[in-house]
Design goal:
This protein is an all-alpha fold. The chain has one domain (12-228). The chain has helices spanning 13-30, 32-58, 71-92, 97-104, 106-115, 123-136, 145-171, 178-197, 203-228. The chain is globular, with a radius of gyration of 17 Å.
Amino acid sequence: MTPRSPSTAGVPPWGLAVAAMLSIQLGSALSVGLISTVGPAGTAWLRLSAGALIFLALARPPLRDVRRSDVPALLGLGVTTGVMTTGFLAAIERIPLGTAVAIEFLGPLTVAAVRTHSPRALVWPALALVGVVLLTEPWHGAINLAGVGFAALGSVGWGVYILLTQRIGDRFTGIGALSLTVPIAAATAAVIGIPQAAGHITPGVLAAAAGLALLLPVLPFALEMLALRQM
């Protein structure tokens, strides 16, 4: 087992995970105003770019420790993070935050159930899916299919993100790997984010994006990587 980081010694891994989730939800809720100005992809790009700069300031990229076999996982984690972030923000632009969060949680819940290697554990994501259907009430015909689709994309992305984060966390110490993957995530979001945000970027928007970057991605990504080393 990887030794615990001194900064998190004595904190149970589930506590780190819960803190990460709270930071994610708070960051998502506070991003609504920015989404209305620069769009969901523009918000994802600005937040991830600010997060990348923060991670680069906090930790030196462990380039010397990167093996050829690590490259696919590093690239995969970066691209997945960019797609997941953009998809979720596009979802909360179209459907209520609570519904989007419920759908997105199906990803990590399914990963957790499958990794237990117990068929009975699959009951929980199935029950969660029933709950999502009750939330969205598709029989009323008022469901926003695009919003649900983006939330589902975020769900799949979050599941893959967890698997790759654990793999990367087992290979690298501290949060240095995030100074490699988050810039890749920012570059991924930039494909749609730059055209979407063009002409709407102001000093106030940049300041808001930098502040939101602390809540998401900086704090939760770091906490999740530290937690997954112990879980």
